[in-house]
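Hi R.,

Here's the chain you asked about this morning:
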Amino acid sequence: MQTNELSIDLLRRLADLRPDGACVLSLFLNLDPSEFPTPAARATEVRSLLDSADRQARQADRFTHDQAQALRRDIERAGGYFKGSDFSVEGAHGFALFACGPADLFETIRLPRPIETRAVIDDSPLVEPLAELATRGSWCVILVNRQLARMLRGSRERLDELPPVFDEVPGRHDQGGWSQARYQRSIEKEAKDHLKRAADVAFRRFQRSPFDRILLGGPDETVSDFEQRLHGYLRERVAGRVRIDVENTSAEQVREAAAPVMDEVDRAREREAIDRLVEGVRTGGRGAAGLDDTIGVLNERRVETLLVAEGFSASGVFCRRCGWVGVQDLGRCPVDGNQLEQRDDILESAIELAIQQSAEVLVSRHHRDELEEEHGGIGAVLRF
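And the predicted structure, written out as tokens:
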């Protein structure tokens, strides 16, 4: 089964962490099975990742003696973890590891999508590569007819099938009169009981491992009946329907049929957010567009949704002590007077601010050109 151990709460805890005087090791490992299908190939990628981290840790001019020693211990611990039995790639297409001994941090996260292999050493965990993964959400596709319910979980890239729910419901018979009516009522009750049981199973699975959005498939009347039996928490997550045979399709065929629907849902989600941004900017209300204005409202903790065009980057400054972010170097932080530091790309700092204020981070792919050309590549829908 495809695995996603990343959550908004975990991402927020990482974004909030700034160990005093210590460095954080952030490791990202690509586990794409099309590129790394064997243990040997994955082991080579792990060695390359740890070598990169070790080279960075040995840059004497970057770290104090204590920081360098702590980093070497963190790298050794990470290496031991990757060689041990606790490291599992089952269901994962990517992997993230965060370590900082002085802060008692050692967090491992299996991811549902491939991620670029890289090592980063900084004063806080690097959360930007994970932000969109956490906010984009996971899917559950439920296919249902009068006696079978199939549930598949995952993402646009991969769906894994869970055990089905099957109830043998008899078909109609040709005997007429009162006995036929009574028999038919019995059949209808069994079919409805099956749908109720399938809805209950779906809710229990959601309670154990929540998913964000649902697609339903099957005969229209049956699907409508099933949707009404879903718990309210699940009904509000139904995002659309997929047209496919309930019984005679593979998980991959279901994914292929569901992917365009998922894309359309994502496209509509982006469109709605951009429309809210445009309206907010037009009325001078709950919208900010362009780097200067967006950074300003992030610093004011007013952001509900941060929109970023895929591939966007910009230089700027930030305050290591309080997290304030700026576009122009003012020399000292206007909040606490601390010396500002230059960064070639302040998107990571902007996303940290967004996560810390519980804002949604939306990376725009479908409307990327519009966001770049008309709104400077970055904008925000505001809470107030």
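The mean pLDDT is 91.

Let me know if you need anything else.
M.
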